[in-house]
């Protein structure tokens, strides 16, 4: 009877010790997390890194490109056989990553077959094209400025005589 309890005690102790090592290994090597990785650690492991810019534009290799131009850039890389397999989207100094950036990059990842990731508050997140609702690429249109000939020169406003004079010029 004494022998059985000693054997049982040793088996339980070995089981507890094995569990401690297993859980310690998961915690130490990140196996217990949800699959998120710190972006700063992984930045150099991507084939291409681009930055989000204002109004849905991207900064690629130092140049500000609209979504259509960025798509053309990846089409060129595909034609030359230099298409990246992984692309990382980072916020720039001028703009944070917005939903429109994710939608455009999701469309490009579908069209050109690369895997896209983005910096989500310091955590690396893959862009899922289905959940992101990829949108068609669009060109950037700068805000329209009114020509000086269409504005009145006086603070009181234009009367019909001023408007007629402006139309003749």
Please give a quick description of this structure.
The protein has 169 residues and is of the alpha/beta class. Helices cover 43% and strands 17% of the residues. α3 (67-79) packs parallel to α4 (99-112).
Description:
The protein has 2 domains: 1-33; 37-132. The chain has a 7-stranded mixed sheet with strand order 1-7-6-5-2-3-4. It has helices at residues 2-29, 39-42, 67-79, 99-112, 129-132, 160-168, and strands at 37-38, 48-52, 58-60, 63-65, 86-91, 115-120, 123-126. The protein starts with a helix and ends with a helix. The chain contains 6 helices and 7 strands. It has 169 residues and is α/β, with parallel strands linked by helices.
Low-confidence stretches: 31-35
Tell me the series of helices and strands, N- to C-terminal. Answer: HEHEEEHEHEEHH
**Percent helix among the residues?**
40-55%
The total count of strands amounts to: 7
Structural class: alpha/beta
User: What can be said about the biggest beta sheet?
Assistant: 7 strands, mixed
What radius of gyration results from the CA coordinates? Answer: 29 Å
Question: Strands, helices and their partners?
Answer:
Layout (H helix, E strand, L loop, with lengths): L1 H28 L7 E2 H4 L5 E5 L5 E3 L2 E3 L1 H13 L6 E6 L7 H14 L2 E6 L2 E4 L2 H4 L27 H9 L1
Parallel strand pairs: 2-5, 5-6
Antiparallel strand pairs: 1-7, 2-3, 3-4, 6-7
